Amino acid sequence: MGRTFRLGTMLFCFVLTSGVAAFAEDSDAQAARRAEFQKIDRDNSIFVTHEEMEAYCDERFNAADKDGDSILNDDEVLGDKTGGMFATADQNKDKKVTREEARARYNQYFNEIDTNKDNQISADEYVNSGKVSVKF
């Protein structure tokens, strides 16, 4: 009886702490998306418009465009260039991303998150989308 009780208690504690860890990861990811939403929502209206998303795209693009030529190349791009956001933004597959290509990808990203199709993204839509922002 004592051994069964201890084993059951250990199993319960393991399940409980595993669930807490998963919840903490979700909370961390949601907190990161909420912080990013606040950066994008420049007028603090609790909604992101296409204009705000485009401004955020331009800000990110300009920060990555080290040589100022309005084209992101391999040396300027972070992360995976073969299958990630870079590849999806590089519409003509020339291994470069122009400002226009970046804006098109951000527009697609906006439309994916705007689940109720009201041409604005609420904080809840953004945070609960589970999507990671387009990275350059």
Could you explain the architecture of this structure?
With 136 residues, this protein is mostly helical. It has one domain: Orthogonal Bundle (Recoverin, domain 1). The strands form 2 sheets. Strands 1-4 form a two-stranded antiparallel sheet. The protein has a two-stranded antiparallel ribbon with strand order 2-3. The protein is globular. About 14% of the residues have low confidence.
Top keywords for this entry?
single chain; 136 residues; mainly alpha; Recoverin, domain 1; 4 strands
Write a short abstract of this structure.
The protein has helices at 2-40, 50-64, 85-89, 99-113, 123-128; strands at residues 47-49, 71-72, 97-98, 120-122. With 136 residues, the chain is mainly alpha-helical. The protein has one domain (2-128): Recoverin, domain 1.
Helices and strands in order:
Elements: H1 2-40, E1 47-49, H2 50-64, E2 71-72, H3 85-89, E3 97-98, H4 99-113, E4 120-122, H5 123-128
Antiparallel strand pairs: 1-4, 2-3
Helix pairs in contact: 2-4
